[in-house]
Amino acid sequence: MKDNQFFDINKFPKGYGIIVMPISISRAENASGQDPQQCFEYISSLTPSKVIEPKVGLNMVYGDHLYMYSDEKAATLKNKFMSIVIQHKNAFHKMILREKDIFQIQHAFSYSVWNQLYLNYKGDFGNDFNNFKKMYEEDEVFQQYLRDDAEHCVRELDENQVNFFLEEFFLLYALSKKKISLPNSYIQDREDWVLWAYPGVILKGQAYTYQQNPLNLDAPENPYQNHTYDLESKKLVDYMRINLETYEYQYEE
Predict the structure, then answer these.
(1) Taking a C-beta distance cutoff of 8 angstroms, is the pair 117, 66 a contact?
(2) Is the pLDDT of residue 89 over 80?
(3) Measured between alpha carbons, how far is 124 from 52 in angstroms, rounded to an integer?
(4) Which of 231, 120, 136, 239 is nearest to 174 (CA)?
């Protein structure tokens, strides 16, 4: 395969596994890419067609606290995000319940908010994340990639946006490396593999984080430790095969 060229998954590996779907608050409503109906369609395209064994769980993680990097009043944001999260979770779960013949293992679906990742982090999250931020502050290449990402996302790269990007990149990297435990009442800590899935092309800063491997982590039991699944293009993206010198937010054909 060429650099920046990726393909769909045929089947998930055997053994227990968890698909992690991070939900962006900005995309959770009004047909913005991760509204309940769209999320249901994404999951329906993955299961049961790609499942070899009935050993797969879904953890939906709402990025509410990540959006607290804002100048708006905390109380205003809290009420806004609480409403979005509750409505989204309830609407999505009703769809799952309605399709019991397909999604027979109802307790395989787990829901949590962003703060839970801090508590489930194996180690000192505050210290590790601060070191990661220092790496960014001393790395001009990393800084340029965040400028590129902000332009691609049509966002101003102020201090809040830098912190937003860095925390998102860092925690999703830690998830792939199995440095964050994922409560799921069906899987019950038995997962062999973890794959996070999100609709949209990979940002350069995210790929650079994996390639730099700031915590020197290795989870060889997880075949997806350096991957994500793009739900829009239906491609399994390998971060180690993204050539950041030529990558322009699209995959090679």
Answers:
(1) no
(2) yes
(3) 36
(4) 120
Distance CA 20, CA 23 (A): 10
Question: pLDDT tens digit string along 106-147?
Answer: 889 999 999 999 999 999 999 999 999 999 999 999 999 999
Alpha helices by DSSP H, the chain: 36-46, 74-98, 115-119, 125-137, 140-152, 159-176, 204-212
Say if CB 184 and CB 116 are below 8 A apart. no
Tokens of 10: 């045929």
Distance CA 24, CA 27 (A): 5
Tokens of residue 109, six digits:
């679906």
Q: Is 3 within a domain?
A: no
Cross-strand pairs, 78: none
Quick one: 176 exposed, middle or buried, by C-beta within 10 A (0-12, 13-18, 19+)? buried
In a domain, 64, yes or no: yes
Residue 104 has pLDDT above 80, yes or no: no
CB atoms inside a 10 Å sphere around CB 248: 9
Q: Considering its fold, how many domains does the chain have in total?
A: 1
Q: pTM for the whole thing?
A: 0.95
CATH number for 60: 3.40.50
Calculate Rg over the CA atoms of the chain.
18
